[in-house]
Amino acid sequence: MKVLLSKNEIFAKVKKLIAEVLNINEEIITENSRIIADLGAESLDIVTLLMEFEDAFNMKIPDDEAEELLTVADVIDYILVKVEDKAPA
User: Fold this and answer.
1) d(C-alpha 82, C-alpha 62), whole Å
2) Could you tell me the domains of the chain?
3) For residues 87 and 89, what is the distance between their CA atoms, to the nearest angstrom?
4) For residues 6 and 80, what is the distance between their CA atoms, to the nearest angstrom?
5) pLDDT, tens digit, 9 for 90 and up, residues 9-63
6) What is the rounded CA–CA span in Å between residue 40 and residue 64?
7) 3 state DSSP class of 10
């Protein structure tokens, strides 16, 4: 039986993790927020965020794919695809 997280559930979890790691208010985080330019993440923050996403969603994010994750929406869409790929039929 497939049990998938909805896009809204993933967004809520991603937003919470970003807010915790960057020490910012969740309310300023939107899907269009750019993680570095808009939310102020630095290189160490990015590494921490990637590890948090990997732990929270039980997945691995290769470096070459991580470089493509520029906005919150990019992260959500990436996780949606990976979670669907892992779900048993």
Assistant:
1) 12
2) 7-86 (1.10.1200.10)
3) 6
4) 8
5) 999 999 999 999 999 999 999 999 999 999 999 999 999 999 999 999 999 999 9
6) 21
7) helix
Tokens of 63: 């470096």
Q: What gap in Å lies between CA 82 and CA 66, rounded to an integer?
A: 13
Quote the Cα angle for 33-67-25, to 5°.
Answer: 30
Tokens found for residue 44 = 């160490």
d(CA 89, CA 75): 24
Closest CA to 39 of 67, 9, 14, 2: 14
Q: Record the pTM.
A: 0.91
Angle 28-17-77 (CA atoms, 0-180°, nearest 5)?
A: 85
